[in-house]
Amino acid sequence: MTFSTESSVDPDAAASLAHVMLESEIEARIGAIRELAKQRKVILEALAAYEEGWSAAVAAGWTVEQLQQIGLKEVAFEKPADPRPAVEAVAPYVAPVAVNTEYRSDAVAAPSYDSSYGGPVAVPFNG
After folding, report:
1. pLDDT averaged over every residue in the chain
2. Residue ranges of the domains in the chain?
């Protein structure tokens, strides 16, 4: 990458151009989602109409086996998923900690500072 000192960029103009570029991308993405949602609605409406036709055919005396032999298949509808994510009200797992409850007379406490020795020393635990 080469750096040229011949031209300078106005910070406000650069920010404005960046905003236009991002806004254009956002609008394109939102437009794609809008179109996808419209197509999903069309599919769901068509499936509902097909299900009504299927029910009408069965009510007219056609059996499921006969309709399948003709090449028609029954539509299995699934309930729409709840758009809200499931939240589990479970406390986080905390692993148990092993505790040694055995008393030892030779146990040593945490190091303490003893100036007569010039540094930390182990002091017997009395307690």
Report:
1. 78
2. 11-80+96-121
**N-to-C CA span, the chain:** 70
Tokens representing 96 are: 């148990």
Q: pLDDT, tens digit, for every residue of 6-46?
A: 678 889 999 999 999 999 999 999 999 999 999 999 999 99
Contact 57, 74 (CB under 8 A): no
Q: Give Cβ neighbours of residue 108 (< 8 Å, ≥ 6 apart).
A: 122, 123, 124, 125
Residues whose CB falls within 8 Å of the CB of residue 109, separated by 6 or more in sequence, listed in order: 122, 123, 124, 125
In the structure encoding, which two tokens stand for residue 27, read together? Answer: 């609008």
Task: State which amino acid sits at residue 74.
Answer: E
- List, as one string, the DSSP characters of 36-91: HHHHHHHHHHHHHHHHHHHHHHHHTT--HHHHHHHT-------PPPPSSPP----P
Give burial (CB, 10 Å; 0-12/13-18/19+) of 35: exposed
Residues present in the chain in total: 127
